[in-house]
Each structure stands twice: as C-alpha cells, then as structure tokens.
TrEMBL record:
CDD domains: CYP2C-like. This is unspecific monooxygenase. It is found in: Endoplasmic reticulum membrane; Microsome membrane. GO terms for cellular component: endoplasmic reticulum membrane. It comes from Ictidomys tridecemlineatus. One of its GO terms (molecular function) is iron ion binding. It is a peripheral membrane protein. The keyword Transmembrane helix applies.
Amino acid sequence: IELSEFTVTSMDPIVVLVLLLSCLLLISLWRPTSGRRKLPPGPTPLPIIGNALQIDFKDVSKTLAEFSKVYGPVFTLYLGMKPTVVLHGYEAVKEALVDNGEEFAGRDSIPIFERCNKGLGIAFNNGKTWKEIRQFSLMSLRYLGMGKRSIEDRIQEEARCLVEELKKNNGSPCDPTFNLSSAVCNVINTTIFHNRYDYNDPCFLDLMQRLNEIFRILGSQWIQIYNTFPALINCLPGSHNILFKNVKYMQNYLLEKVKEHEESLDVNNPRDFIDYFLIKMKTEKDNQKLAFTYENLVITAFDLWIASSETTSITLKYALLLLLKYPQVTAKLQEEIQRVIGKHNSPCMQDRNHMPYTNAVLHEIHRYINLSPIGIPHSVTCDVKFRNYLIPKGTPIWISLTSVLYDNKEFPHPEIFDPHHFLDEHGKFKKSDYFIPFSSGKRKCMGESLANMELFLFLTTILQHFHLKSLVNPKDLDVTPVANGIQYLPPSYQLCFIPI
C-alpha cells in the first residue's frame, strides 16, 4: 500500500506535465488549421515546431525554391507556430514591395535583434520613428557625400592605404580577408565617428575581432533555434550570450564616441554622422520627438556600422576570387581601367560612366554571389489582401532575392558568371529591373550607393596596381558559395598580388 501511494504521488507532476503538453499540441494543431484557410497554401506544419524540420537552415534559399515548385510563387511556412508568407519570383516580389510598398514595408520582429536593438535604429525599427530615422540618415549620408571631405575622398584615401598594405606581401601568397575587411571598416568608421585606424592598431583589431564573431554567431544554426524559441534559449548557456556581450561592448564604444563628439561639436561644421545626429537632437529637443535620442543615435550608428562593414568586405573578397577564376574578364577590366583612368590617376566615380564593361562586371558580381538570399524578413503593416489571400497584420514576409537574381528568362544560364548579362549587343551597359541584390521598395538597403562606390573604387584601384595570380590553375578554383543560413560566403582561398 505504501509503495502504490508513493507511485501515485510521485506521478502527479508528470500527469500534469503530460496534460499541459497535450493542450499545447491541441492548440497548435487548431490554430494553424483555422488560420491557413485564408493564408496562401504551403506544406502542412507539425505541432509546435511547424515546418522547421522541412527547412534546410544552412541554405534556406534552396528550400524555398523546392517549395515554390509545389505551392507556387506565394506560399506559407510555419516557423514554430508562427506563419510566414514567402514571395518567390520577380512578379510576386515586385507586386508586394513596389506596387504595395507601404503595406509590405514592416520589419519582422526577430528575437535576436529585438534583444540587441530594442526596436530602435534603422534595420529593425517600424512605424513613424523608423521613417524619421531612415529619412534623416539618408539625408545625412548624402550631405557627407557632398561635403569638403566627401565619402568618395575617404574611400579613395583608404584604397591607397589598402594598396600599400598589399604591397607589403611582396607578391607572396596571402588571404585577402583581413586587409579588405580593415579597409571597408575604416570607411564606415570615418563616416560615422571620424576615426581612421592603422590596420595593426590594437583597438581596431579588437573591434574587428568582435565584428567577425558577431557575424559568425549570427550565421549559426544555434541562432535559428534561438529565434524560434527565444524564451527557452535565453535561460540557457550558448553562443548567443557571447553575441550579446560583443554587441553591448560595441554600443558602449559608440556611446563614448558620442560623448567625445558632444564636447567638440561645431554645429556649423559637422564632421560625420554622429555630428549630424547631435545637431538634429538640439534642433528637435523642444519638440520632444522620441526618434532623436542618445539611445537611438547609438543603435542607428551601430546598424550602419554592422550593415556597411561585413557585407561589402565579403563582396570584395568574392569579387577577387571570381576575377582569379576568370582571367579573361580581369584582362578586359584592366584594359578599360588603363584606357579610361590611366595608371597614375586615382579612380573616381565619374569614371564609371565611361566604363561599361567594368559596370557590367560589378553588377554581375552582385548578381552572381547573391550575398543575402532572402534579405532581412519584412512584415505587413496592416491586414493585406494579396492575390486573393488575406495576410494578417504583422505576418512575417520572406523575400527570395535568389529567385529574382537567378531568373533564367532575364539572365540566360544564371548559374554562370557572365558580365554579358548586363551588356547589350553593342557592348553598352544594360540595366535590368531584376537586379535587386539590395532588395527593393521602401526597405531597400540604404547603404546601396556606399557599397557600390566602395566596390568600384577599391577594385579598380587594386587592378591599377596589381596583377592577380592564382595559386592553382584558374579552372580548378572552386567558386561555389558556402551557405551559412543568412549569407552566401566565398570559400577560403589565397592569391598573390603582383605589382604592375
């Protein structure tokens, strides 16, 4: 009798747990079924985890392409119990982001970024505050591009510094990652807080290491799990805690820069983005606008820092690999550079207008590497009727940029790197509406012009001064991207920079 009483008593919590789990299962089964009737079609989700087991989080774009063959250009996936609508193909993407731009201009609430940015800044903000900050930031960057010390001047100077660093290798094999990352990071440093660092500066090396660690962790499967079950993962040890520590450190670093700027601020002679923001704070202090605060300044600057550093350096690294793989393309580039710019003149953005082949190559680099296959998820700002479906307000929207950049009707043989995708029969540059590596619509990446400027000025300056030599036969070079969930990265490689 004593044994049976003990068993029943000890089982009570387990019975309760089983009942709770059963209720959760029933709820999860009922909710998707009732909501799916109005949403676009899609694979049947499992209780609680949704379609998570059917998605290859290392290469999400590939999974989306397979689903689109079954369910069409607009379909629904469940990440956990949360529905996400996917747009696949040019027509669906254009209809949403351009024709219905306002309704699809929301930003999905991503737990890892909510924790880091608190809904402030540019990238993960929404509503009126986001519009004000984005408009102000675009205007400030435009002013910085036209001032006495323009962004183009800063990039040209950094390109010359990069060339000097590359010369130190004396034509020996090297991995270009560090030098490219340092050059790009210095451009955004001078733009945001007026500091350029020597590539061996200890403070700079520490910042670079933290940036690299942030992106490495963001691309891990652990963060995918975190975003699906944030309440649970927050209580556990893991790499997310290292990410939060690094983000906090870098935001505190920016706050120190803000304090330094306040002490030396000249409202008649703004030096950088922080100065422009501080001046705006002064002019808006009586209006009590919540958008222009110290906290929003730090997080906005951090957004710009993050968005403008890693992505451009990866693009440059991938670009050099493609130029190694296709030496005939490199030879044509160098011929055009020599003819239009010469050997001793610093490349400038006006030169690009007279360089159709170079322009086509740069566009093809962006298209081919397809750096961010689905971009940053959007959300709808209100209940939206889209193609006879009803998408509730706040529903996340995934945009398959791959499906547009690799459209085989617009780009014959899209899996092949071919600058002629952007050249007409007369060798003149040809634009394409399908060229959307920076996304499209109201959430289009605001750093597009800066990234394009850096890619042109850095690459042309490098090719002015060096021949690129592969360590293996170019035909044997592997240019297959390494998918890490959020980006396509180039495989590791080395090359020799042979001075001309």
